[in-house]
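Q: Got a minute? One more chain.
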Amino acid sequence: MSATDGAVKEPTGASEETKTEEVVVEKIEFTAEELEEKMQKEADRRVTQAEKKWKAEFEADKKKAIKEAIKEAEELAQLNAEERFKLEQEKERAALEGERQSFQKEKLLLETEKTLVKEQLPVDFAHFLIGADAVTTEENITKFKETFQAAVQEAVEERLRGKTPKVPGEASPKRYTREQLETLSREEIAANWEAIEASMKNL
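A: Always. Here it is, folded:
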């Protein structure tokens, strides 16, 4: 038995130094022309892909439409004259109903715009406020009017609390005399309140 037989052996990898792999990043430089060419190729590739996808979808839709048309023709062929007449009437009725609904929607939109003009509200919101019928639309406009007016009022109050922007060319004095204060209107006092307040402290 040798002297080394009883010794505890260290794990093979314990004493070995950990090897780190260096990642080499290759710097690639392009001229303006090369970069433009690469960008153009990438754009062309994407356009080609989009075109292929569109063509595939178009072909799929066309095949589906043809299948449906064939199926409908086969069903019509199996019907007698009376059944065929009823089916055509149903189709016409459905088309007329679609047109009627479209007309009613346009009419309601026009009425909504008129109401907004009458209430002095932005007409651009008509599409958002239009409801299923005239009653729902009226309710929507009422709620919108309340919210809109509250927002306007808040904006006005915020502006009055802040500094009122001066009109170009008009330099209002930083201090007012008693005589000047007596000649000011309510609007002028509100517009220049900070300067007036400062002047009153010095009177």
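A: The helical segments are 32-78, 81-118, 126-129, 134-161, 178-183, 186-191, 193-201.
Q: Perfect, thanks.
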